[in-house]
Design goal:
The protein is of the alpha/beta class. The protein has two domains: about 20-175, Rossmann fold (3-Layer(aba) Sandwich), CATH 3.40.50; about 195-315, Rossmann fold (3-Layer(aba) Sandwich), CATH 3.40.50. The protein is about 40% helix and about 20% strand. It contains 13 helices and 14 strands. It has helices at about 1-25, 50-55, 80-85, 95-100, 125, 150-165, 170-190, 215-225, 245-250, 265-275, 280-285, 295, 300-315; strands spanning about 25-30, 35, 45, 65-70, 90, 105-110, 115, 135, 200, 210, 230, 240, 255-260, 290. The strands form four sheets. Strands 3, 4, 5, 6, 7 and 8 form a six-stranded parallel sheet that branches. Strands 11-9-13-14 form a four-stranded parallel sheet, with helices on both faces. Strands 1-2 form a two-stranded antiparallel sheet.
Length: about 325
């Protein structure tokens, strides 16, 4: 019996090995590159809270060596902290090549301006000779290649690609199916003949506001919620504008991004007291929506943001 069980165990191990081998190699498109994986990463490193959340949502914590770029910028809720308990943060803001090498990273999941910068120390080009492949957040590709307006499809593509990279496609497909269903239910609740309220996103900044153009994820969220991003003519991702532009465009609703050392309430009070904004409709009527950073950057929490935003833009009975 002992020999039989040993033989059975060896057979199951061989079957699992052959099954995984049959899935690989896998090639996925990342921005303008094709990235090939010979096996599922076992020591992946994620950058920022939103990308880290994607890996956790796909059940990939056992495949992670750590994460970076959270404690230096963001405050995590209790549930998220519990999920990360025992997993090391390699750097509070931006990881170095040394951080990734010391962690034995076999995948860096990051984005342009989400841990990587053009010409910076950590990029796909600098990590390739070291044997560390990079999968880039799709929304962030706007920083390195021409892109159309941000879409929720960008999020779905990332989740499905991660499913292929880690050989957890059924999990990724189920998650995307659930997100699509929730988005469709929101769209059905928005009155078909409703006028789209004009929304200005305020991330931060006093001399100049930092906001989202049409290449950033809030574009897709505001549009799907039945609104219009007041800065949708900006062919850029996250960028600075002038207060004069905000005043001229006269937003009906201001979306405040909540993160960092300046609280959402402090941002609200700053906007309410800004002399140049006193005649702006959103300020006069005190129409604000507050969403956390995690929900307005590409993440599995985008649909929660969409649900909140749709209710704020189109209050009242639902059909």
């Amino acid at each position: 019996m002992k020999l039989f069980l040993m033989s059975l165990g060896a057979s199951l191990l061989l079957f699992a090995t052959l099954t995984q081998a049959g899935h690989y190699p896998v090639t996925v498109t990342s921005c303008q590159r094709d990235v090939r994986f010979e096996r599922a990463p076992q020591r992946a490193v994620s950058q920022d809270v939103n990308l880290t959340g994607m890996l956790l949502a796909l059940g990939l914590r056992p495949n992670m060596a750590g994460y970076s770029g959270i404690s230096g910028w963001k405050t995590l809720d209790e549930e998220f902290r519990a999920q990360l308990a025992g997993l090391p943060e390699l750097a509070p803001r931006y990881p170095s090549v040394e951080n990734l090498l010391n962690a034995g990273a076999d995948l860096f999941f990051a984005g342009w301006n989400y841990g990587m910068h053009v010409g910076g120390e950590v990029t796909p080009a600098t990590l390739a000779p070291l044997g560390i492949p990079v999968y880039e957040l799709t929304e962030s590709c706007a920083h390195v290649m021409p892109r159309d307006a941000a879409r929720l499809e960008d999020l779905y593509a990332d989740l499905l690609n991660l499913g292929r990279i880690f050989d957890v496609e059924p999990r990724a497909e189920a998650l995307v199916s659930d997100l699509r269903g929730r988005v469709e239910r929101v769209r059905q609740r928005v009155p078909k003949d409703a006028r789209a309220p004009e929304v200005f996103l305020y991330d931060s900044g006093e001399d100049q506001p930092f906001t989202a153009g049409r290449l950033a994820m809030p574009q897709a969220l505001i549009e799907a919620a039945g609104g219009r991003n007041l800065m949708d003519d900006l062919a850029s991702s996250w960028s600075r504008v002038n207060w004069e532009t905000v005043v001229e465009r006269d937003p009906e609703v201001i979306l405040i991004v909540d993160y960092g050392v300046v609280s959402a309430e402090q941002k609200r009070e700053f906007l309410l007291s800004h002399p140049a904004l006193q005649q702006v409709r959103a300020i006069r009527e005190k129409r604000f929506v507050v969403l956390p950073y995690l929900q307005v950057t590409p993440s599995v929490d985008n649909v929660t943001a969409l649900e909140t935003l749709a209710s704020a833009l189109h209050p009242g009975p639902r059909p």
